[in-house]
Amino acid sequence: MSQEVPLSAPLDELLDAAKARYDVRFEPVTIGGVTLQILQIADLEALVDRLAKRTGAGPIELPYWAKIWPASMLLGHFLTHLDPGQGRTLIEIGAGVGICGLFAAAQGFHALITDIHPDALLFSKINILHNGLGDRADVARADFSADRLGRRFDVILGSEVLYLENIYRGLLKFLLAHIGTAPDAEVVLAKDFTRRASKFLGPAEKEFQVAERVIGYKENNPENGEPERKLCQVYRMRPRKQI
């Protein structure tokens, strides 16, 4: 979809553009004692049903970008252990609505929130402006499997970006091209434990020192509402070589 309103437009114009395409509402999200108002599609399941009926037997472009994944929330909590320092920079890749980048900016990082879907960038920019984070956060289109932004960052974040094996090589090259030169620069990736990523970790460990942490959480089963224990993996990666 082409973006009808430039992302440099005022908040009210951006919000009108989102409302023209979706039934939306702001919902509070709290991480580490900080609450932000996040623009969400009001009924994501109903939207998927409408898309299915509209496309019939054809392929459906599911709005994965609009969902707040558990890995994003856990990565947001993990951020509270990172020091934003004086002007430390951060990029979130495959950001969707920008949960991690938004909370990083609220914590004090200078954050760039990136995605390839124009509506994800629209929602992220609205969330930035609505929460008063315009001085510390911005958005940009970036394909983390191919693009080069010509910048390096102190922290690179990504949640659920390891879902396709065919992008692993491009992703690794992107990380190496954009990780900063400071000794404490690092990549932090989070994913659901059931998503295997051994074909990424093997090559990654040749370029980065990788520390893994497994975090448990509970999520209600959508069918019966009962809480289920699940696991998320967080990888902290620091370059082995001085850039």
UniProtKB/TrEMBL annotation:
GO terms for molecular function: methyltransferase activity. Pfam families: Methyltransf_16 (PF10294). SUPFAM superfamilies: S-adenosyl-L-methionine-dependent methyltransferases (SSF53335). Keywords: Methyltransferase, Transferase. GO terms for biological process: methylation. It comes from the Bacteria. This is Methyltransferase-16, putative. It comes from Solidesulfovibrio fructosivorans JJ].
